[in-house]
Design brief:
Elements: E1 3-7, H1 19-28, E2 32-34, H2 46-57, E3 64-69, H3 71-82, E4 93-97, H4 109-120, H5 125-131, E5 135-140, H6 148-157, E6 161-165, H7 181-191
Parallel strand pairs: 1-2, 1-3, 3-4, 4-5, 5-6
Length: 192
């Protein structure tokens, strides 16, 4: 059975934005969906988030798929970079929603200090490509955290297909997203 692991963004929980809708849509199609509540969501720490994801996933395989939102994308990438995969073992694929390698326009010094390790600790795109055969980045041309071209380029380096949605902000409920059909469509394309 295919497993889908959905990782929420910073300062939001598993039950926020479009994630409950997507979980229900995926379960209706017969997928096993895991939607963990990540630790310290208001001040995410790489080791804690990656550790929680590793705990939830257990032993990944080609039937394991990921969907991340914002820092959830970073968590998935860092998990794939750090996880010791058995030779020639890969995961099925990933959908990255509002994924980033860099951000601008952060609110204050405290927020910048929390984000700093996520910017500064490198992710190895070559390793990601060896364990992640298929992925898609869904990104908006007006994300309030900017770095649009830089983030697109970095996701292209890991082999992601790029889908640009005009005027979608950061794909939050505040931006009008309580459903995200494009994520479902792109995941189905990865699986089939």
């Amino acid at each position: 059975m295919k497993r889908i692991v959905i990782v929420h963004q910073w300062m939001a929980g598993a039950e926020g934005d479009w994630r409950p809708w997507l979980k229900a849509a995926l379960e209706k199609q017969g997928y096993a969906v895991l939607m963990p509540e990540m630790p310290d969501r208001d001040a995410p720490v790489i080791e804690k988030w990656v550790g929680k994801l590793a705990e939830v996933v257990g032993e990944p395989d080609e039937d394991t798929y990921f969907i991340g939102h914002s820092i959830g994308c970073q968590t998935i990438l860092r998990y794939l970079d750090a996880h010791l995969f058995k030779p020639e073992r890969t995961v099925g694929g990933a959908i990255f929603v509002a994924g980033w390698f860099n951000l601008k326009n952060l609110e204050d010094d405290e927020t910048r200090a929390i984000a700093k390790p996520w910017f500064e600790r490198a992710i190895n795109p070559l390793k990601i490509r060896t364990v992640l055969p298929k992925s898609t980045l869904i990104i908006s041309d007006n994300d309030p955290y900017d770095c649009f071209e830089e983030n697109k380029k970095k996701f292209e380096e890991i082999g992601s297909k790029i889908v640009v949605i005009k005027g979608a902000g950061h794909f939050t409920s505040e931006d009008g997203f309580t459903e995200l059909p494009i994520a479902l469509t792109e995941l189905e394309a990865l699986i089939n």
